[in-house]
Amino acid sequence: MRVLVIEDDPVVGPDLVQALSEAGFVVDLATDGMDAWYRGAVESYALAVVDLGLPKLDGLSMLRRWRAEGHHFPVLILSARSDWTEKVEGIQAGADDYLGKPFAMGELVVRVRSLIRRTAGHSSPLLVIGRLRLDTHRMSVSVDDHPVRLSPLEYRFLDLLAHRSGCFLSTMEIAEHLHGRADAADANAIEALVLRLRRKLGPEVVESRRGFGYRLRGS
Ligand code: CA
Question: What tens digit of pLDDT does each residue of 37-60 get?
């Protein structure tokens, strides 16, 4: 899944990108509030990590703009100033979670995963969709209780569909979340990925509809 990190600190920003990339996310980094506001408004993100003190446009004003414009992806705020009034202000501006600096990268990754999961309506890290079971902590998958070995890309594809349960996802959206971009070549690559998954999971687990895209059956 694709996430946006907004952090102007030259050390913390790249550290966040590295930790989230290692956790399996596709990560974009923005270093000022105007650039971040624009990306959040035009691109498709599963979540944004927002530092409050930013050049050009501060984090809270940027967040208020997104929310006023109807962009409702979850937002985790980072701030060095972790007094409670600022937390309240952040929540009122539309933030979903708040982490005070300094923080442990491990905690950040766990919070990002659980925010994305809860936003998708799953209260447990174990996602059960039809015959499919995804353990989002262990990053493992089983069908009818039989474990299935998947490549990281195959897992990320299923994880993405599981978090958008019920909706068809277009090839373009899938490519943006898996690779951070979408071009014509991705359509074929995603078709090939689905064929591999159908061989591994059974033919009916991933449902496709021409013109709409893909979703998990039973979601
Ligand atoms: Ca800052």
Answer: 999 999 989 999 999 999 999 999
CA 209 to centroid of ligand 1, rounded, Å: 44
Domain that holds residue 95: 2-119
Q: What pTM value is reported for the model?
A: 0.85
Residue 116, H or E segment? helix 105-119
**Mean confidence (pLDDT) of the chain:** 92
DSSP codes of every residue in 170-193: -HHHHHHHHHS---HHHHHHHHHH
d(CA 8, CA 15): 12
Pair 98, 147 in one domain: no
Query: What's the gap in Å between 198 CA and the centre of ligand 1?
Result: 45
Q: In whole angstroms, what is the distance from residue 96 CA to residue 137 CA?
A: 21
Structure tokens at 204: 């009916």
88-123 confidence digits (pLDDT tens): 888 889 999 999 888 999 999 999 999 999 988 888
Residue 55 CA, ligand 1 centroid: distance in Å? 8
Domain stop point among 68, 89, 119: 119
